[in-house]
Amino acid sequence: MYMPIGNSFRFTAIKKYQSYKINLMNHEELISTLNECANYCNHCADACLEEDHIQMMVTCIRYDRMCAEVCSSLAKLLSINVPSQKLMALVEYCKNLCASCAEECSSHEAQHCQNCAAACKRCVDACSKFLYNH
Predict the structure, then answer these.
(1) Which InterPro entries does UniProt cross-reference here (predicted)?
(2) Cβ neighbours of residue 71 under 8 Å, at least 6 residues apart?
(3) What is the pTM of this model?
(4) Chain-centre distance of CA 75, in angstroms?
(5) What is the pLDDT of residues 7-27, one digit of tens each?
(6) Which helix (H) or strand (E) holds 69?
(7) Do the Cβ atoms of 131 and 102 come closer than 8 Å?
(8) Model pLDDT, residue 19
(9) Is the CB of residue 99 less than 8 Å from the CB of residue 124?
(10) For labelling, which of 81, 85, 92, 117 has a CA lying 20 to 30 Å from the CA of 48?
(11) pLDDT tens digits for 95-130?
């Protein structure tokens, strides 16, 4: 078993924290956009349940729920010290799912759907930017 002696353990811990902090700061914009998208999708799904013609909203609700879950999960993973290259496939999947959700929500006139579509499009852009930079 390795037992650090003196300040070497402290130095290692500080170095890891600094690396984590830099990593988190690099992902802060995407994390914020993902969380915003998840919030809009959750709100849209709930509001769709209150629509008069709920049967017309089933696909929208399903996309909203899937998109919210994936965005929320990706935001959590980005906030811990997971190497970016390990998340590339999930970021790509999230981008594609948000694009599909935006397309579905855009097809409805309800303001909550339009707001959700706009948030999903911002998320697509943020994921694309992340993929381009990594």
Answers:
(1) Csp_YhjQ, YHJQ-like
(2) 34, 35, 37, 38, 41, 94, 98, 123
(3) 0.81
(4) 5
(5) 555 544 444 444 444 455 568
(6) helix 58-78
(7) no
(8) 43
(9) yes
(10) 92
(11) 999 999 999 999 999 999 999 999 999 999 999 999
Q: Is the pLDDT of residue 93 over 80?
A: yes
126 touches 34 (CB < 8 A): yes
Q: Tokens 């924290």, residue? A: 17
Nearest to 101 by CA among 49, 59, 58, 53: 59
Count of C-beta atoms within a 10 Å radius of residue 21: 11
DSSP-derived letter for residue 107 is: T
d(CA 60, CA 6): 58
> How many residues can be counted in the chain?
134
